[in-house]
Structure formats: structure tokens, C-alpha cells
Amino acid sequence: MVKLSLHFLAFCIIAIFTNLFNSPISIHALNVGVETNAGLSLEKECSRTCESKFCAVPPFLRYGKYCGIMYSGCPGEQPCDALDACCMKHDLCIQHKDNNYLNLECNENFLSCVAKFTKSGSPTFKENTCSITTVVRVITDVIDAAVAAGKIFKKP
């Protein structure tokens, strides 16, 4: 039941953000003051520092410089570790696919990269305070939901 709920939550988040990017409504219309509390923001950010915040909260997860919804490294920034590199590759793929967050190719390649990272036992970046198991679970749940949505909406 919990896994279904996480998938449903992830699906809703992906659907909302996908609709925002494909809609004439500005993302700034969502600015409800969230960013005034604990550094949260619904605006796209770019990062130059390795972060590990909100590890178990899909819409606010910040891991490395590239992992998180509406969160990415600044152009030219090196990833913090191998998992962050997976997120960077996913971000670049999505950009090349016209910001189609439901793109099956990008999302399936991302899941494969995350699985390889998990099996490799590669270390996380030095300042990481998140459980890597939690971060991988959150990322996998969100992307699994995006893959399911991509199949439903027939996104290539």
C-alpha cells in the first residue's frame, strides 16, 4: 500500500510539472511562498554545491548538484558522485528531448544508470548526509511513475 501511494504521489508530481512546462501558465504562478520556509522553492534552480537535503521527500529532494525535481547543476558543473552523474545525464537527455519529462528513453536509461550505481557500491560524495538507499528509492519511485505515465500518454 505504501509503495502504491509513493508511486501515485510521484505520478502526480510528474504530471503537474509536465503540464506546467507544456502550458502557457508561468511556473511563477505556483509561487506560494514555499521558498521562505527552510530554503524550499518551486522555481528551477541550478547548483554549484553538493547538497543532501529532504532526502525522503520527492518534490524537495536535493542530492548532489543534479538530483531533484526542478533542480540541476549549473552549466559546466561536475557531478558530486556517480549517482549525481546519472542525474546529470538524465537532465541532459530530457533537455535534448524538448523538456519531455515523460520521455521513456531518458527515464529508462536513468533507471538503468541508478541500478548500476547501486550494484557498484560506489561511494557517495563526502558531505552527503542522506541514506543512499533512501535517495535511490525516492528517485526510482518518481522515475518509475514517469515511465508509467509516459506509457499511458504514449510519450516516446
UniProtKB/TrEMBL annotation:
The keyword Signal is annotated on this UniProt entry: yes
Major place of residence: secreted
Top-level division of the source organism's lineage: Eukaryota
First-level EC class: hydrolase
Cofactor annotation: Ca(2+)
Keyword check for RNA-binding: no
UniProt-annotated binding residues for Ca(2+): 66, 68, 91
Localization annotation: Secreted
InterPro entries xrefs: PLA2, PLA2_histidine, PLipase_A2_dom_sf
Family: Belongs to the phospholipase A2 family.
Protein name (database record): phospholipase A2
Chain's gene name: LOC101252788
